[in-house]
Fold this sequence. Notes:
flat, Rab-GAP TBC domain-containing protein, 14 helices
Amino acid sequence: MRTIEETRKRWDILFSDNDTPSDLRAALQSEQGGNLCNDGLRSVCWKAFLLFDGLDKNEWASKLEESRDAYRALRDHFLKYIEHPDDLESTVDPLADDEQSPWQTLRHDETLRTEILQDVDRCLQENYFFQEPDTKSKLTDILFVYSKLNPDVGYRQGMHELLAPILWAVDRDSVKPHPGGHEANKDKSEGLMLDLLDTQFVEHDSFTLFLSVMQTARIYYEHGETRSANGQMDVIPIVDRCHYLHKEALAVIDHELAEHLEAVDVLPQIFLTWARISI
């Protein structure tokens, strides 16, 4: 967590000459792009591209409020009896073997959270941030809410690896608001900055970013089968995608590497695992 003064400097660096999404994208893709992210605010870049339609900051506050309210409502709904099991009122016998019983639902939820926590406990163990109880709690709750919201996909091993850097960046960029609240700021720009990076909403914003990423990434976690391009066989979506990246996309980007991997018979899923770890 940074000071407000340091964050203000980073905010100014990020938006000093970038008034449109194309300006910001071009700046990030330039030779100095890495420095712009590191010296600026990485999570703000992600929010600008994934959550907002553009860099018109007049619309950011309302969209932030909507997304945070949405997560708050989802969290309250799905975690209600996890956090307050004594509030579960039911005439059904808690020990009855009834799949429709709210007690059975609670047990399924507890089992799901145990599964998620097993992965969370193994997440980036060399980084102290991910060993903190508060971090583990946020990761577990976000993944649990996502899996309940998307029962067709549920939770799959590896989702925590996508969420972890998002939570880390959002938390690292976060700031504590002034004691008097954002209204205490005479500078409208600084008020927006503090609202966007408010430490109270690290979990909310991380969930919304993760949800946006999963719109594209969920295919990697779907276990259903689809017909191959030639229609002759059923393939799992992730296997089909790995084959495309390995056999076609890589050949365009780095033909020499593609030929070498094929010569030594490295499977697509193995190569892509190496790439993910190195990133």
